[in-house]
Amino acid sequence: MNAKEIRENTLPELNKKLAELKDELFHLRFQLAINQLENPMRITAVKKDIARVKTIIREKEIQDSQNA
What's the domain range around 18? Predict the structure, then answer.
């Protein structure tokens, strides 16, 4: 997932995506703890996706406040 794809979403969609990513990260960490994680690099990728989504949510909030 890249920033361009994320920016095309609306704020409610981004919040939903953020919740999904956090849930996925929780499950990945759980799998890591019980030694059933097949791809440990997925945790890093999900963390980066969470950061991207949070950054774009903040950008949209700032943009909305400046336009109001």
Answer: 3-67
CATH number of 47's domain:
1.10.287.310
- HSE of 47 in the Cβ direction (CA atoms, 13 Å)? 7
Query: What gap in Å lies between CA 63 and CA 34, rounded to an integer?
Result: 43
In total, how many domains does the chain have?
Answer: 1
pLDDT for position 43: 97
Residue-wise pLDDT for 15-59, tens only, equals 999 999 999 999 999 999 999 999 999 999 999 999 999 999 999
pTM: 0.92
